[in-house]
Amino acid sequence: MKVTEHLAQAKDTIVSFEILPPTKGKSIASIYDHLNPLMEFNPAFINVTYHRAEMISKKRVDGSFEMVEIRKRPGTVGICAALMNKYKVEAIPHLICGGFSKTETENALIDLDFLGIKNVLALRGDAAKGEGYFKSDPQGHAFAEDLVRQIVDLNNGHYMEEEIKDGAKTDFCIGVAGYPEKHFEAPNMDTDIAYLKRKIDLGGNYITTQLFYNNAHYFTYVNKCRAAGISVPIIPGLKPLTNQKQLTAVPRAFHVEIPIELSKEIMRTKNDADSEKVGTEWLLQQCRDLLKNGEKVLHFYTLGKPGVIYDVLKQLF
């Protein structure tokens, strides 16, 4: 079932999760251990992130060095298929521009279609490790809107090879990213929303937001999107804070604001366990406020802290 169908048919609150593939060398059992407790809450869908390859310096036998491409977290497509088989849940792979050629993107989409995966999240992706800014593959897409356009083309049966006539049509529901505190590369919020609207106008079906800790930012963002003519569903993304280091790490990585009250409470804690309690309570109150204001879906970035998410959901439901 498509995400938009889940949202349209839902009578109760929808819960969804996002997970990371395990690092290379670990089994998929680590994913199951992560998700098993959370499946109690019947998530409508589970997002699986995709990570571009990195270039590392490796020493040769003769003492010289060579640059080698490695992928630390492979398996996104396989994990999606496994989740659908094990849990009978919709799995949503991330698709990114960075590190993909257009041909590789098309082939990935064909694989996903053959597996019966009906949803994808189209993202530009981050800059490669060690690079100060995003660089696209020479034969790939520079912007998420171009990736959306290619997915829509395949939905219409238009393949890269011009000789393919009457090609099989895919039927992907396309999610795109939104930023309640604007994308850090956008000069201002109005410009950022204009870029978002282009992705929607090209064929994006719903929006999942970047994490946020101040619900006022999210509500203002939704209002601005609606005023700009964006009418598709907007899903709030949520992630707990669980230690003091995150007070600097999270803003640096995700370019979001941590409210003064939350940061002060966490700074008063004496250990990670106490910090986690503060972060859990903050997330719980965020969720309650979102639901009180009419939100129908809560999307959690679990990212190594399924226990916190479980505790919050247990208190909510």
Pick out its properties.
single chain, 317 residues, alpha/beta, TIM Barrel, two-stranded antiparallel ribbon, 10 strands
Give a short summary of the structure.
It contains eleven helices and ten strands. The chain is α/β, with parallel strands linked by helices and 317 residues long. The longest helix has 21 residues, at 272-292.
What percentage of residues falls in helices of 4 or more residues? 40-55%
Ends distance: 24 Å
Number of discrete domains:
1
Structural class assignment: alpha/beta
Can you tell me the CATH class? Alpha Beta
Overall spatial form: globular
| DSSP summary, beta strand count | 10
Largest sheet: 8 strands, parallel, barrel
> How large, in whole angstroms, is the Cα Rg?
20 Å
Helices and strands, in order, run as HEHEEEHEHEHEHEHEHHHEH
CATH fold category name: TIM Barrel
Strand order within the widest beta sheet: 1-2-5-6-7-8-9-10
How would you explain this protein's 3D organization?
The chain is α/β, with parallel strands linked by helices. The protein has one domain (3-316): TIM Barrel, CATH 3.20.20. It has eleven helices and ten strands. The chain has helices at residues 3-9, 29-35, 76-87, 102-114, 144-155, 189-202, 215-227, 246-254, 260-268, 272-292, 306-316; strands at 14-19, 45-48, 54-59, 65-70, 90-96, 119-123, 173-178, 206-211, 234-238, 297-301. The protein has an eight-stranded parallel beta barrel with strand order 1-2-5-6-7-8-9-10, surrounded by five helices. A two-stranded antiparallel ribbon has the order 3-4. Helix 2 (29-35) links the parallel strand 1 (14-19) and strand 2. The two termini are 24 Å apart.
